[in-house]
Write a structure and sequence with these properties.
The protein has about 450 residues and is α/β, with parallel strands linked by helices. The protein has helices spanning about 5-10, 25-40, 60-75, 90-100, 120-130, 145-150, 175-180, 190-200, 220, 225-235, 255-260, 280-285, 290-305, 320-335, 360-385, 425-430, and strands spanning about 15-20, 40-45, 50-55, 85-90, 110-115, 135, 160, 165, 185, 205-210, 240-245, 270, 310-315, 340-345, 390-400, 405-410, 415-420, 435-440, 445-450. The structure holds S-adenosylmethionine, iron/sulfur cluster and FE3-S4 cluster (F3S).
Length: about 450
């Protein structure tokens, strides 16, 4: 189909995108949105106002599948849009995993596009409008979408920058390598150019994205080049650099040095541990032990004192005993995480762990999960106390949802910070600006205080 036909089919149509899952999906949604904008589509405020509804899906845990089926079915009860037809498109990881098979669980889907077919979305949607036929495109591999596609950023001051796609690690519980393919790094020049362009456009913070950014470059250059990338991105003039995720087995000393030495790299590291038990880590195919992880943490802390550490932890991996779990609890206490994303293990068909039988009752796993959450609440609370009395630069995201008179933003250590909007300032005055906040209250999940000086 010619570009002109796609535009003719889509111009003036409204679209709404709902995204589940990780930052990679959030960024892919920005690319889909950019593509639809470039065809003359307009963003709608909700699915009821949209001619096109796109679901960007996640299958990392089972609950996400069920949620998608529910959401797709609920589209049937919406009033028909004025154009007479609403196209429902499903992209992301469930689409990649199930392809046409998705139709057995949801029958009202018009377009299914996989994680390697983003560039074709507008064409598939245009066809669904023109012929009324179902479109399914879920190849195992595809071109690197990031470079060639337009991009609709959700906010002006921050950008997700994918530096690589896919994953080679095959942790035994995880579906991601099967739905995102193997690691594929972008070139250093391309990433740096992109960040330079973002700086010119007024972006102040970038988050470099990959399932394991520490191995960035290995596929393209023969050895990892993440430390070098951090230094080069640091020279673009961007004010804040974050990155996620980091696999502990690949975090090199040179990367810790770059983090310590590049002023724009924020003092926060997300380093998923998954379990504190070396036995379970081996079963998970994580390729580090508890001791190696703790040693890495102490080397990071020596080099970057006060750094905020966050993590992902899975509770209830098949065969996890109370003893294993107590090792996870003690590790969380020892590290003193500022934040942790805690998950109950979810069996994913097709992964090696799905074949392991587990007699542990659900109630036992839930009880362990609740105990872990309590420990994390304590470590997060303790971590935040260190900010009391300090003045910290906060990148403002907007006003607080609960109180329009308070601004909300992020500290360098990724803490959420609230402060009353100073007299005479509006939300527009502060969004995307950096303000200094003197912290007088430190709770488990946020800090608050008052603004000192002017926004910059
Ligand atoms: N690549 C990232 C890393 O290794 O840090 C993680 C990406 S994954 C999208 C995010 C988190 O989901 C993982 O760190 C893990 O804790 C969790 N996760 C993955 N598979 C899971 C499963 N089968 N059940 C429960 N949690 C899972
Ligand atoms: Fe999944 Fe492991 Fe890859 Fe992370 S590193 S995406 S947990 S397989
Ligand atoms: Fe989910 Fe796919 Fe991300 S499975 S967590 S959206 S890579």
């Amino acid at each position: 189909m010619e570009q002109l036909d796609i535009r003719a089919a889509l111009a003036g149509k409204t679209y709404f995108i709902r995204t589940f899952g990780c930052q990679m999906n959030l960024h892919d949604a920005e690319r889909v949105s950019g593509l639809l904008d470039s065809c003359g589509c307009l963003e709608a405020s909700g699915p009821e106002d949209a001619d096109i509804v796109v679901f960007m899906t996640c299958c990392v845990r089972e609950a996400a599948d069920q949620r998608l089926y529910g959401q797709c079915s609920s589209m049937k009860s919406l009033p028909t849009p004025p154009g007479g037809k609403r196209v429902i498109a499903v992209g992301g990881c469930i689409a990649q995993r199930d392809g046409e098979g998705l139709l057995t669980n949801v029958d009202n889907v018009d377009v299914i596009f996989g994680t390697h077919s983003l560039t074709h979305v507008s064409e598939l949607i245009a066809r669904a409008f023109l012929d009324g036929t179902r479109q399914v495109l879920t190849p195992e591999e595809g071109e690197d979408a990031a470079t060639s596609m337009p991009w609709h950023r959700a906010v002006s001051y921050h950008a997700w920058v994918p530096i690589m796609t896919g994953c080679n690690n095959f942790c035994s519980y995880c579906i991601v390598p099967y739905v995102r393919g193997r690691e594929k790094s972008r070139s250093i020049e391309e990433v740096v150019d992109e960040v330079q362009g973002l700086v010119r456009a007024g972006v102040r913070e970038v988050t470099l994205l990959g399932q394991n950014v520490n191995s960035f470059g290995r596929d393209r250059y023969g050895s990892p080049r993440f430390a070098e990338l951090l230094r080069l991105v640091g020279e673009t003039g961007i004010e804040r650099i974050r990155f996620t995720s980091s696999h502990p087995k690949d975090l090199l000393p040179e990367t810790i040095d770059a983090m310590a030495e590049v002023p724009a790299v924020m003092p926060h590291l997300h380093l998923a541990v998954q379990s504190g038990s070396s036995r379970i880590l081996k079963e998970m195919n994580r390729r580090y032990t508890r001791e190696q992880y703790l040693d890495l943490i102490s080397r990071i802390r020596d080099r970057i004192p006060g750094i905020a550490l966050s993590t992902d932890i899975i509770v209830g991996f098949p065969g996890e005993t109370e003893e294993d779990f107590l090792e996870t609890l003690s590790l969380a206490q020892e590290v003193g995480y500022a934040q942790a994303f805690t998950f109950i293990y979810s069996r994913r068909e097709g992964t090696p762990a799905a074949r392991i039988e587990d007699p542990t009752p659900r109630s036992v796993i839930q009880d362990r999960f609740d105990r872990l959450v309590k420990v994390i609440e304590q470590t997060a609370h303790d971590f935040n106390q260190q900010a009391l009395g300090r003045t910290i630069p906060v990148l403002v995201e907007g006003v607080s949802k609960k109180d329009q008179h308070k601004l909300q933003g992020k500290s360098p250590k990724n803490q959420t910070v609230h402060a009353p909007l100073p007299e005479g300032w509006t939300e527009q005055d502060v969004v995307g600006r950096i303000v200094d906040v003197k912290v007088d209250t430190a709770r488990t999940w946020y800090l608050s205080g008052s603004v000192v000086g002017e926004p910059r």
